[in-house]
Amino acid sequence: MSTGMTPQALQGLKVVEMGQLIAGPFAGKTLGDFGADVIKIEAPGSGDPLRNWRLIKEGTSVWWQVQSRNKRSVALDLRSPEGQDIARRLISQADVLIENFRPGTLEGWGMDYETLSRDNPGLIMLRISGYGQTGPYRDLPGFGSIGEAMGGLRHLTGEAGRVPVRCGISIGDTLAALHGTLGVLTALYHRKVNGGRGQVIDVALHEAVFNVMESLVPEYSAFGVVREPAGSALPGIAPSNAYRCGDGGVVLIAGNGDSIFKRLMSAIGRDDLGQDPALADNAGRVRRVEELDAAIEAWTLQRGTAEALAVLAEARVPAGRAYTAKDIVEDPHYQARDMILKQATRDGYEVDVPGIVPKLMGTPGAVRSAAPRLGEDTDAVLAEAGYAPQDIAALRNRGVVA
Hints:
Layout: E1 14-17, H1 23-33, E2 37-42, E3 56-57, E4 60-61, H2 62-67, E5 71-75, H3 81-92, E6 96-99, H4 105-108, H5 113-119, E7 124-129, H6 144-150, H7 153-156, H8 171-193, E8 200-204, H9 205-210, H10 216-223, E9 240-244, E10 250-254, H11 258-267, H12 271-274, H13 282-287, H14 289-300, H15 305-314, E11 319-321, H16 325-330, H17 332-336, E12 340-344, E13 350-354, H18 378-384, H19 389-397
Parallel strand pairs: 1-2, 1-6, 2-5, 6-7, 7-8
Antiparallel strand pairs: 3-4, 9-10, 10-11, 12-13
Helix pairs in contact: 1-8, 6-8
């Protein structure tokens, strides 16, 4: 596990994370990776449900180990008035509050931004929800998969005429988290140069997805075109697809640049296509995309995956294969760039986890601490907030903290 002796970019930033599962906690993780002190508030007894999602080792999800590294856990009953008072005190001393509850939840606990900012005018509040804090859908429950659907992504995933498929991960939640993190950093800069006041950042899951949908809406506006699913191809860009190899593997080839296309055609022995004036630009290649895809796959089917990739690399044509988890962990490039980290857990075993992105050369991110056990840091965090030991003990006896 990297300890990060170099000062980190967000060192000294205090974050209170009140979210659970993916979107809010991923934003907290990202800030924590770059030095922020992230205090995660969890419900006593159960904690964040992510602790029990997917594959479990020693009683805890291995997903939890990466999602909650560099965080401290406080077990606090937010449904009790005393628990809400404690939360308000922690927030009054924080730079950033992250929450991804349904809109209105914090208001019901007396933690609306107006109230919180009276005690902490510089507070930056990141709110991630299914549909945002305003609008006719704001009160509907929303998960990442629903945001992916409403944002336009699900309609494009899969093959024409078949039920849309998910991309295999909770991409809607993660996109919302990254947009939220960008919002936090932008608001921190604004606070620094414009008088120290904070603000609310309102991120809707579907809007985060929609923001990366490229030309989807402009094409509909200008041409009335509704973009449809196209399997492994990239519609309107050619050639760019996945091609079968003779050993049962698949290579992805992006030969859509004008000069790249000529090198690709030369590499597969089809200079007749590479030198065809009608194929000199993308528009011409799109008109004959089926012919080009057939020519490329005729070549890949005669070769194994490794051989095809070697030839394409020599020709400087962007190409690759679809990596599995095993491929990633064993890949020398991943290892050379510290993208697979060996992380010790609080449960006594080590696990490989993803490295830190992006890579800051002057103030790099680091894994400073393993994911916490539920409530492991309650006493320390409350003591820092000004609670005496006897007060913490009394709160624990009343079940307010754990």
